[in-house]
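step: validate -> pass
step: tokenize input -> pass
step: predict -> running
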Amino acid sequence: MEKLGNSGKMIKISELDVRLGTATPTQEQLAAQADMYQFIIDTYHEYIPTAQQYGITIWNVSDNANEHEFWLPNESPNLWDANYERKHAYKGVADGLAGRDVSEDFTGELEY
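step: predict -> pass
step: emit ->
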């Protein structure tokens, strides 16, 4: 990432996903997935100057098999599980994008 930051070019993370090797991950695997999502986003912000940050795109919405039956079958790489419930990975991404633990002062209210 440091080399990319030093390139002077616009840098985009495209189709980010963190595979777990199973469609039925353990709680430990889900926590590790969240940590990896956050690590990637934190590293992007650390090494890519703001003027070169072109964006981060997540690969797909959920682990529902119908959404990725032809690509990564029997996997769980996304932010929502097969039933469209948020996974730990959702918080990992949110914390990475915010640059802090977003749950520390979350009130449920949206600020505009």
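step: describe -> The beta strands are 11-16, 53-58.
step: cleanup -> pass
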